[in-house]
Design brief:
The protein has 160 residues and is an alpha/beta fold. The chain has five helices and eight strands; from the N terminus they run αββββαβαβαββα. The strands form two sheets. The protein has a six-stranded mixed β-sheet. The chain has a two-stranded antiparallel sheet with strand order 2-3. β4, α2 and β5 form a beta-alpha-beta unit. The longest helix has 17 residues. The termini are far apart. The N terminus is likely disordered.
Amino acid sequence: MRNFISIFVLYLTCYSSSGYATVAPDFSYMTRSGAVHLSDLKGKVVYVDFWASWCKPCRQSFPWMNDMQHKYAEQGLVVVAVNLDTEPQLVTAFLQKIPANFPIVLDPEAEIAQRYDLIGMPSSYLVARDGSIRFSHKGFFNAKASAYEQQLVTLLQETE
């Protein structure tokens, strides 16, 4: 049993940082212009981030995501953050301290998270212009921020 768990953890570690392609599970969110489905964003590169107010690495990832959204929006990057808190006031308090310049999707029942087989917080998925998930990250590490950005740039340079 111990070997099985070790192999499973190794598999998750490899899976979490490697490039792969699977269709990103669809979900919708509201904007000032109305409902947007992830599938509506085909043709853009989408950074889908799952977070919660209690997650310390999430506090580090928000400024980086704001920077990436600002830097690459004109090239087709869209950042969407999915929150898993069950108490909306915790989300509000977090965003007052660390504002987001990208859409926040509330998922208190973790329905979207289940579609992505979420296993850690924060988790992020880089969705290519064709709607496939090409990279994912478990956790957010400032030391890897340039590698995360390079993955975004790689996807932004691809044509559909």
